[in-house]
Amino acid sequence: MNKDYKTDDIPKEKLTGALRRGSVKKHVAAIHVSGKLTLLQRKLSNVLLLNAYDTLTTGQVHMIDARTLCLMIGYNSNDMDTLKASLRGLAETVAEWDMLDDQGQQEWGVSSLLSYARLKGGVCEYAYSPALAAKLSDPAVFALINLNIQRRFTSGHALALYENCYRFVRTGSTGWWSLDLFRRLMGVEDSDYYAIYKHLNAKIIKPAVAEVNKTSNIVVTPEIRKRGRAVTDIRFKIAENPQLAILDLDDGTGVRRSDVYSRLLALGVSDRLARQWIAQHGEDHVAEKIAYVGQQRNVKNPVGYLSAALKDGFTTEPKPAAPSSSRAKDLERIRDLVASRTPTQRDADRRLFMSQIESADARADFERHGWMSALNTVSIKAFWQEMVPDEFEET
């Protein structure tokens, strides 16, 4: 999920406490966001960021269809009022940073999470302020949250803790936060009840730590610092969770030497996505899918088609003859429709279709073969006819 950075920017053997060392050019995770966001708003914020990530600094406006957005977050796809309220919350929430820039000068800044959002014609359009976009696009400052992990969270406090800890995963520690800052990150700074550390620890810290450690790809351990008998500061030690470790891209030096990486870039795949696919699927599997895409005719979007092939299991093995020319046309239309969708949209499409399958056998067949599932032929066509009715008018 991260863009490139030089390995000497963050010396791995000297990471602990490196935020205070002049030899470190870029400082990790200096952006703090108010914890008052609801769980759904936090998930919404992460999906919007992932959707916009590749063009954060080059595109002023980003778009995603509202129905897909709702499905990815867990909203009812027709509940536009909830979506509007959540977008409004993001526009009203402040992100703040206080850090050293590349020249070692102190930089403080503040920005709303979204500079604006608009719903029109079934599409959500939104933008970030240029200053915030620059910070979010820098992997040394901000780490993207994996959507598969964030879906597991049931507590907004746990997700807030995970977000604020995961950004420090390379350093192994968040560094010391004052309790006032920690309460603000958890969204409870206005509560007299949580001004008492005993209550904060019992109701916020312990449950959030337990959920992060059970749910995510990291394990966090809180440590406190006292003045006399009063707790004044807290930090979290961070380690990878060996039971739930997921894709964590390194600097990419070895991957970039591979032939498969070069072939991906030749197709137009971004460096970040090329490294992600190789790490996730393996070089041999990616090479097989590249060959498959190369055998197809009239592919207008090879990157999208390859993404769909990797995700939905399009195969290079010979397929049995289609039962009819009509069926063959339907398959081609469905392949093209899937390939034309963004990764976020494709994930939402699969989740929505899976929720409609009642038979266990049909569900297993779809999980194995994706949109080419023979047991789901009729329902797959009906699904896409409803999604894009104009594509099937001839049949």
TrEMBL record:
SUPFAM superfamilies named in the record: Winged helix' DNA-binding domain
Initiator Rep protein WH1 domain residues: 24-165
GO molecular function: DNA-directed DNA polymerase activity
One Gene Ontology term from the biological process aspect of the record: DNA replication initiation
Domain of life of the organism encoding this protein: Bacteria
Family that this chain belongs to: Belongs to the initiator RepB protein family.
Name the record gives this protein: Replication initiation protein
Source organism of the structure: Sulfitobacter geojensis
